[in-house]
Amino acid sequence: MSECILKVENLWKNFGGLMAVSGYSLELPRGAIYGLIGPNGAGKTTVFNLISGVLKPSRGRIVFKGRDITHLRPDEITALGLTRTFQNLRLFPSLTVEENLKVAAHVHARCGFFSTLFCAPSFFREEKAIERKAREMLERFGLYEFRKEIAANLPYGLQRKLDIARALMTGPELVLLDEPSAGMNTKEADDLARLVAELQRDFHLTMIIVEHRMSFVMGLAEVIQVLDYGSVIAVGTPEEIRQNPKVIEAYLGTGDLVA
Amino acid sequence: MKRRIPQELWFVIGGLVLFGALFVAEKTLNRYLLHILILMGIYSIATVSLNLTNGYTGLFSLGHAAFMAIGAYTSTLLTFPVPLREAYDLPRLPWFLGGPDAAWSFFPALLAGGVLASCAALLIGAPVLRLRGHYLSVASLGFMVIVVTFAKTLKGITRGPMGISAIPLYTNVYWTFLWLFITMYVVWRIVNSRFGRALMALREDETAAQVLGIYPMKYKLFAFVVGAFFAGVAGGLYAHLTKAIRPFEFSFTLTFQIVVMLIVGCMGTMSGPVVGAVLLLALRYALKPLEEHLKLYGLIELIYALLLIVVMLWKPEGLVGRKRVSVRGHQERKEEGEWARFSTPR
Ligand SMILES: Nc1ncnc2c1ncn2[C@@H]1O[C@H](COP(=O)(O)OP(=O)(O)OP(=O)(O)O)[C@@H](O)[C@H]1O
Ligand SMILES: [Mg+2]
Fold it and tell me: HEC string of B264-285?
């Protein structure tokens, strides 16, 4: 097994009286795709919020590339190469598709205020590089023809793609995808699954995918964790998970576990 | 083949045309009209710089008048003629500002006013910019009240409520529009760079911006400090135009005026704030004879308020604004975002 890129130790989070995450742990090998599933309200998004630094854990430790990131700000964590997408899409609605991407190139921009002010050559060089990178991403995601479109006016499926593209613009090594196929039809979801697999290969990404669409996550992930009431009730390959009685019970009546 | 003229070139052309026009204006307009023209320039500097926080970054600050006050008092105190200081009860300059026999010239005094306003912004920004939405607005308004109160009570420096008069007249069209040009240039450079993109991203969705690597506090402070600098300069220009300043001039009325100008013109665009400032001042001076004739003082403020309401109801994106996204939809999203911070993100 290869190097462990992310290590989460005994993570807890409560909101007032509600225990959203209780004792979540994970050892994620570099280059792997892991799945995180569980019924509604199980705490999956909260786990992402904790890892990406949007929320601070009540207890526990998060180590990314050998570095303790538990107390870092989200932007610092992103700069280290860990970013995420959002379940409820948080695009910059009144910026264009291209601008949405360019914003995300910020982490690696080095050009200072005064070079910007006085139009130094380094400014134009950097702007060009950002443009090139944005264009590459636009083409890959099939968004190029929409680049001047306002993000809010994009069809929903493309908005989801833009969200992923934007995350990749930060040049991450680890990406957390929160329900990337939500709201898509089966064909769109299948296309997205193919794209995600491609991206993972081309950008050497490690990923954690939260999904309710079992076909999507079972097809991509090599290991799946099942979360229920904030704790992991099962870990295993997609095949093992599908047959695990505890998992079937957790999903009982929800009818979600039809692959 | 048609070649697009790059934005950079437009700026140079615009600058040349502007100063040509100013030359003509200065030679042909009478003093009253020239005075109005200069005021338009000064208010434009104020609104363009306010736009950086309120328009691009989505921080609805109401403290801009305070920065103008700081700039106005700073450059007044630095430039005040030495022989008159005694008679006007004004202190002489301490040694580190040039000593008791020194009076600064105009340009460095304006700069000093801007820098001091920026320092104030840096100081109060750290706590105030932590707040969101209405809380930030109210806190920045509180800052304005504090500055005005200081101006009223620090009698040894500011002469208190009666203010300072006999300020040397330095401001002219060239100074004013040079500064307006610089202000617009700086804002334009910022907006078209990663800095501006970061500011707009923060306006649209702070959490998303942060997850994409933008540290909110840094860029909010940046917008606030740069905006304050030009507000300080505008204040200095104002003092050296009207030749007299009193604390209350930098209070609610001024705050209200520049905010209305910005909203009526259009927040978050290059030309909007200038259009707003020019239009509303034109309206003010067009209506002034009527106001005096009817003895209905405050009529103009009333009309400003009405105009604000009308614009917010029927053209909330401002006069020059294009609808990019339905404002209502945007606001719902914003609220959802804000609310999500305190309850479930679902
Ligand atoms: N910021 C918050 N404040 C208070 N409670 C929260 C917050 N975030 C999440 N919760 C609660 O924590 C629990 C876990 O929520 P979470 O969003 O992590 O679930 P989830 O597994 O992502 O669900 P879904 O599949 O519906 O997205 C829920 O009961 C939710 O109401
Ligand atoms: Mg969720």
Answer: HHCCCCCCHHHHHHHHHHHHHH
**In Å, what is the CA distance from B23 to each residue of B33, B169, B177, B178, B216?**
14, 19, 11, 12, 43
Q: For residue B61, how far is the Cα from the chain centroid?
A: 10
Residue B265 domain-assigned (yes or no): no
- How many Cβ atoms are within 10 Å of B156's Cβ, its own excluded? 10
The total number of structural domains that make up chain B: 1
Answer whether residue B311 is part of any domain: no
Give the whole-angstrom CA distance, residue A147 versus residue B186. 27
Strand A33-37 and strand A223-228: the pairing is parallel
Residue showing tokens 């606030």 = B224
Q: Is the dihedral of CA A82, A88, A90, A95 positive or negative?
A: positive
The span from the CA of A146 to the CA of A42, in Å, is: 36
Confirm if A230 and A21 have CB atoms less than 8 A apart.
yes
Q: Give the pLDDT confidence score for residue B20 in this predicted structure.
A: 87
* ipTM of this predicted structure: 0.90
Q: What is the pLDDT of residue A253?
A: 53
What is the rounded distance in angstroms from the CA atom of residue B80 to the CA atom of residue B100? 11
Nearest by CB to B324, from A84, A90, A94: name it.
A94
Spatial neighbors of B149 by CB under 8 A, at least 6 apart, are none
| Residue A239 to residues A26, A42, A245, A248, B137, Cα–Cα distance (Å) | 20, 21, 12, 13, 56
Instruction: Give pLDDT, residue A242.
Output: 86
A235 C-alpha vs ligand 2 centroid, how far in Å? Answer: 19
User: Phi/psi at B31 (nearest 5 deg)?
Assistant: -65, -35
Reduced to 3 DSSP states, what percent helix, strand and coil does chain A have, rounded to the nearest 5? 40, 25, 35
- Cα gap B249→B317, rounded to integer Å: 29
Compute, in angstroms, the gap from residue B194 CA to the centroid of ligand 2.
31
Cβ pair A206, A173 in contact under 8 A: yes
Q: Is residue B66 part of a domain?
A: yes
Decide: A224 and A34 in contact? Cβ < 8 Å. Answer: yes
Report if residue B294 sits inside a domain: no
- Strands A4-15 and A18-29, sheet pairing: antiparallel
pLDDT digits (tens, 9 = 90+) for A179-230: 999 888 899 999 999 999 999 999 999 999 999 998 899 999 999 999 999 9
Q: H-helix or E-strand containing A64? A: strand A59-64
Residues counted in chain A: 259
Mean pLDDT by 10 residues, chain B (346 residues): 66 84 85 92 96 92 95 94 83 82 90 97 92 90 94 87 89 92 93 93 94 94 96 96 92 92 88 92 90 84 89 82 49 37 31
Name the minimum distance, in Å, from the CA of A93 to any CA of chain B: 7
Tell me if residue A254 falls in helix, strand or coil: coil
**Structural domain of residue B84, as residue ranges?**
4-254
Q: What is d(CA A227, CA A241) in angstroms, rounded to the nearest whole number?
A: 12
Query: Ligand 1 pocket by C-beta < 6 Å: which residues?
Result: A 15, 18, 20, 38, 40-46, 87; B 343-346
What are the residues whose beta carbon lies below 5 Å from ligand 2 (ion)?
A 44-45, 87
Is B212 within 8 Å of A166 when comparing Cβ atoms?
yes
